[in-house]
Amino acid sequence: MLSKISLVNKEIWKTIIRSVGWVSIIYFLGLFFSIPLEILMTTSEEQRKFVDIDNLFQYNFQIQIILTISIPVLMVVFLFRFLQMKPYSDLIHSLPIRREAIFHQYAITGLLLLILPVLLIAIIVLILYQPLFLNEFYEIGEIFKWLGITLMYNILIYLAGVFVGMVTGLSAVQGALSYIVLLLPAGLIILLAFNLPFYLYGYPNQYYMESKVEKFSPLTSLVQINYRAPGTSEIVVYLILILSLYWLSQWIYKKRKLEAVSQALVFPITKPIFKYGTTFCTMLLGGMYFGEMRNGVGWLIAGYVFGALIGYAIAEMVLQKSWRVTIHVRGLIIYTAVIAVLFMLFQFDFTQYEKNIPSAREINRVHISESYYLYSDIDRDEPLYLEEFENIDLVRRLHQEIVENKSIDHMQANHRDTAFIVYELKNGEKLVRNYKIDKTKYRPFYKLIFESDEYKKATNEIYKVAADETTKITITPSGPVNKRAIITNPDDLKEAVEILTEEVDSAAYEESMNDVEPYAYIEIYYSNSKKAYMQWNPSYNKFEKWLKEKSLLDEARVTSNDVSYALVMKAEDLNINHARGFSYEDIFEDMKQSNQAMKITNEEQIESSLKSARGFVDGEYLIAFYFEEQRAIDIKNFNGKNVPGFIKKHFE
């Protein structure tokens, strides 16, 4: 009997090799083309100068990722094909061996066929390492790192496919569900993150989506592997998942009924999970799209209804294997009732999320800015934080005012301003909020915060500069001109730094609220090639006067000498489609051809226009400056009090 079982095992092994051995060969050839062949093709001295590689993942990274994502699923779909075909299933299960043995033989053989190509490539690279002087690019340990990480992801994706294969009876469904299962955690986080702001006022979706959301799916984590290796905790979780998926797959396989073939899902309990899970995800997707694109409760609910119906219908089509499906109205009604209850609970803020503002004694420091991206600015060593009690209290009071002034329907708010607040608490936790607001309503708070010494010193690099250690200052005008002012005289450098520091000290909050483009961008070089950056704002009159005294003004900013002429028109007389996009050239041509355009050639008027214009194409009047030397156009606007008197008079 033992010899008979041994013979059967050998025949099964041969069958597996014949059915999926080609997948292993394709994987090996793909990896060989991506890594060893690429190494051999870049061995000459001339080619090595242009090679910027510090790990094996950077060799044809896109191809490696495609192979790592697709090959394991392809392997498992063809490997367990016998579970989806009744004659084949009956044949395998009629053999004189236990079901556990069948599972182990198929699963482990497939695993070995997946591991072998990766192992061979690692051996080949090890052989090439010394003769081709690959140590100039990376240490030998990088080869073993590549081997371990690639195998870990391969095995995890493979076993996820095996697990899905145990609960489905269709190969196409197995392939699709394998990727859905792998992406589900990250996908749900993203869908919930986009939808929660509609119910939790102040929910910072961008913060949570950008905060390592890729770790929640091996597929999203994998696409970043060339520059971000998985951490220890991530590896531990993946190893636990690998062991769990193998054990679960074996257990489910033993419980699986032999006649359960050609069904999308073979266990009755999985059908409602799949059906309502799909409905819930597509509902969130519909709400995310309509809620973000249209704003308003009506459109949000319409998105939920439309998304839920589409998802429910798709799930039924998959389960019934036909597009002519029977909709089970009772189940849909129960689902709708559950969602309606959840919707109502969120309306009452039963978690007290919106009113949760920490007390001053709980706060260690606080961050306030206009977006999450300013908080996560990679150019800073750490985010801007305010630690003085007065500023912490001001931010708290501002936060409280925003919550108290919450609109009855905040989803319809179309404000362009954002208040992004992060409290770093004394217990080590963080409380993060993000609000769409109209900053003009909270001007008193912002004014006190922005004009405080602590805030100015934290946000302006000029305070890092020692006037005596400054070696050079360059001033580059903002505009289509090819010129730059350079200051190198030690006395002038000291004066310039002192004046710029005074200008920042005396700058009022109102100046930051104006949509005025800076005159120029300043780089200050000091002590051992360090650099500080700042803008030359139009309100810096003392600095402008100093530049004029030093005969540097013409080089430091755009002046009337640079502009050949300007054209002005009322914005309402121009056909500008902001939704579809536009170009400065098209607007300028329309102005040239219009008999309503005002042409300005007077230098004083051009200078006045340059100082008054704002940097957006959305004002009451538009002005196009033409720079003949550069053959360039710059378009700005005038609004309200900023409209020069001679322009108002012309269009009266």
Could you tell me the strand content as a percent range?
Answer: 5-15%
Domains (count): 5
Helix fraction, binned, reads 40-55%
Determine Rg (CA atoms, Å).
Answer: 33 Å
Strand order, sheet with most strands = 5-4-6-7
Structure, described:
The chain is an alpha+beta fold and 652 residues long. It has five domains: 2-261, no CATH class; 268-341, no CATH class; 360-457, no CATH class; 460-556; 565-651, no CATH class. Helix content is 54%, strand content 11%. It is built from 25 helices and eleven strands. It has helices at residues 2-34, 36-41, 45-48, 61-79, 86-93, 99-129, 141-167, 171-195, 205-210, 218-222, 232-255, 270-294, 297-320, 329-347, 372-375, 389-404, 443-450, 453-459, 490-506, 509-513, 541-549, 553-556, 584-593, 603-612, 645-651; strands at residues 363-369, 417-425, 430-437, 470-477, 485-487, 520-526, 530-536, 565-570, 598-600, 621-627, 632-638. The chain has a four-stranded antiparallel β-sheet. The chain has a four-stranded antiparallel β-sheet with strand order 9-8-10-11, sandwiched between helices. A hairpin with a 4-residue loop joins strand 10 (621-627) and strand 11. The mean pLDDT is 84.
